[in-house]
Design brief:
190 residues, alpha+beta, Protein Transport Mog1p, Chain A, 2 domains, seven-stranded antiparallel sheet, 27% strand
Length: 190
């Protein structure tokens, strides 16, 4: 009987001690998690809400020195949740013909690493038009958002960038420099 009593007392002490330590850990963990969540939500709160806000007519006109930039079409694909905005640029100093710039905006549903990886992967797929040869030719663009790539076209290009919990793809008959300049403006707004 004394062995059972000793075993019971040891079990009670061990269980109580573990519960107390566990509660202390839970409190600090909850506090840390709360602080991390607050910091994460502050970081992930986007400034621009739509594709037409991340790259505006005045942004495009400024980069291209264009006389006129008009929105052609915009909206959100309810199935894919991709927000898009298409701009027509007339009178740009780069070319005498009209240009069309396509902007897509994706948002991650959470800030975990896997969601962000999928988000940027989808944006990169659009930038290279899901073409293996163009994917291999894509170039990293340092200093733009959290990560970015440039994909050349025969007479233009595309850039995909991720900043915080959003990814944007910009495509058009534009130089790499113009696309990078636009992407830097976009990254500041995310």
């Amino acid at each position: 009987m004394p062995r059972v009593l000793i075993a019971t007392i040891v079990t009670i002490i061990f269980t109580t001690g573990c519960t107390q330590v566990s509660k202390e850990r839970d409190t600090s963990s909850t506090s840390d998690t709360g602080q991390k969540a607050a910091a994460s939500s502050a970081l992930s709160a986007p400034k621009a809400q739509t594709a037409c806000e991340v790259l505006t007519a005045s942004d495009i006109a400024g980069v291209l020195k264009a006389h006129e930039v008009k929105k052609n079409e915009s909206g959100k694909n309810e199935l894919t949740k991709i927000d898009y905005c298409y701009w027509n640029v007339n009178g740009s100093t780069n070319k005498d013909r009209d240009e069309r710039i396509e902007v897509t905006l994706r948002r991650a549903e959470s800030a975990d690493e896997g969601s962000l990886l999928l988000l940027f992967s989808a944006a990169k797929g659009d930038a290279v038009e899901h073409d293996i040869a163009r994917d291999r030719a894509a170039q990293p663009v340092p200093g733009v958002g959290d990560e970015a790539i440039y994909s050349p076209f025969p007479d233009g290009g595309s850039i995909a960038l991720r900043a915080v919990t959003s990814a944007v793809t910009i495509s058009g008959l534009l130089s790499k420099d113009a696309l990078v300049s636009m992407a830097k403006l976009v990254a500041q707004k995310l």
